[in-house]
């Protein structure tokens, strides 16, 4: 049989490949490409991601007025999404144009809906200022997606597609020494898990502005997009201000801390699913446990509405520079617990009755999860 043309997934050049070869090394960039099947159950997913990769490059050019010259390769699978994109093993320094600190901030108010929120857009504006002022993130390296009525760039609206592309931009070309932040303020929810890889039987999800038409973004997809590709020496912090968000990044370990500050790490790993990274450290600070709800309120700020998690997170870090992860978690919980609105936390017989009748947990206890275990009282919080 005659040789066929295949494109290198690293540099994009077309090469002649013998028909029996399924993995080849590029003679130009020495990148390794695995040829996926042209027929069968994965072919449609593979072809759709090739199309997605091309649209992604245009998305980045339009949103950030810069370009990242790279082609994705594909590795691994998830139950729902087939092949997911892997950033190139390495990028030339000239391509790493956004620096070692990058952030994606998503705030969604859901205008015109009965479930609209008040503080989500405020949350991401505050978070951007916080990252610049406290941790030296360059403004040009912070990508904000909001449904603010003043937003005119359609690619900065937090649709499902735009959030997916923003997560891809965040991880693209990441390398040792990078600090990445993903912040989401909006609605969260749970879906029945069909694959047996969740301890509680549910997948957690975030709700894009168009989730009623395009669907939610499940924890499996978030993990595949920004956790698994994280390289050794890189850090990812996710701050998720949404209901049911305790394990929304599907990280391997959850910190279980009581009110006295004693903690243990709960192992969430599943034999059927790899929840790890490529050597990097992923940490998630979420608004509440998987079975709890979170709210936005003006009770904490005394003025504008904010998410309780976002406000308590920013306030705690600003008030106590150099604090540990354990101190951060306990202080945020104390701030929310001490709010006397009857909204952030409900205790007593009425709350107990609602819990029993509706199956709801009306407390809000911020959670910490991680791709690896560590001593939360000696490890310093740094972005």
From TrEMBL:
Its lineage opens with: Eukaryota, Viridiplantae, Streptophyta, Embryophyta, Tracheophyta
GO BP terms, alphabetized: proteolysis
Q: This chain belongs to which protein, by name?
A: Peptidase C14 caspase domain-containing protein
Q: Where are the transmembrane segments?
A: none
User: What's a single GO CC term here?
Assistant: cytoplasm
- State the family it belongs to: Belongs to the peptidase C14B family.
The gene it comes from is LOC100783197
Question: Which species is this UniProt entry from?
Answer: Glycine max (Soybean)
Q: Where is the Peptidase C14 caspase domain?
A: 101-373
Specify the domain of life of the species encoding this protein. Eukaryota
Tell me the Pfam families matching this sequence. Answer: Peptidase_C14 (PF00656)
Gene3D superfamilies (alphabetical): 3.40.50.12660
One example of the protein's molecular function in GO is: cysteine-type endopeptidase activity
């Amino acid at each position: 049989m005659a040789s066929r043309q295949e494109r290198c997934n690293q540099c994009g050049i077309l090469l002649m490949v013998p028909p029996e070869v399924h993995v080849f090394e590029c003679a130009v960039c020495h990148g390794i490409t695995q040829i996926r099947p042209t027929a069968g159950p994965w072919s449609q997913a593979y072809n759709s991601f090739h199309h997605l990769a091309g649209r992604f490059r245009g998305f980045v050019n339009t949103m950030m007025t810069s370009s990242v010259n790279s082609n994705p390769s594909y590795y691994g699978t998830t139950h729902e999404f087939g092949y997911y994109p892997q950033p190139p093993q390495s990028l030339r320094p000239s391509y790493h144009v956004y620096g070692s600190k990058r952030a994606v901030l998503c705030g969604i108010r859901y205008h015109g809906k009965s479930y609209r929120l008040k503080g989500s857009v405020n949350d991401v504006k505050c978070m951007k200022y916080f990252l610049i002022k406290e941790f030296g993130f360059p403004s040009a390296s912070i990508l904000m997606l909001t449904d603010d009525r003043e937003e005119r760039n359609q690619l900065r609206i937090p649709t499902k597609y735009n959030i997916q592309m923003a997560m891809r931009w965040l991880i693209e070309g990441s390398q040792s020494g990078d600090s990445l932040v993903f912040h989401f303020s909006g609605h969260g929810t749970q879906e029945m898990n069909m694959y047996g890889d969740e301890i509680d039987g549910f997948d957690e999800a975030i709700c894009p502005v168009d989730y009623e038409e395009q669907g939610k973004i499940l924890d499996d997809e978030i993990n595949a997009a920004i956790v698994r590709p994280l390289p050794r020496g890189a850090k990812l912090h996710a701050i998720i201000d949404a209901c049911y968000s305790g394990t929304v990044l599907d990280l391997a370990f959850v910190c279980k801390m009581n009110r006295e500050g004693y903690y243990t790490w709960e192992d969430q790993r599943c034999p059927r699913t790899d929840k790890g990274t490529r050597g990097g450290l992923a940490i998630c600070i979420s608004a509440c446990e998987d079975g709890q709800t979170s709210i936005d309120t003006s009770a904490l700020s005394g003025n504008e509405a904010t998410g309780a998690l976002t406000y308590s997170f920013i306030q705690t870090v600003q008030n106590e520079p150099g604090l540990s992860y354990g101190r951060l978690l306990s202080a945020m919980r104390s701030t929310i617990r001490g709010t006397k609105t009857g909204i952030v936390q409900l205790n007593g017989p009425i709350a107990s009755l609602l819990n029993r009748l509706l199956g709801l947990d009306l407390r809000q206890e911020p959670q910490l999860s991680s791709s690896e275990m560590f001593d939360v009282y000696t490890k310093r919080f740094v972005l």
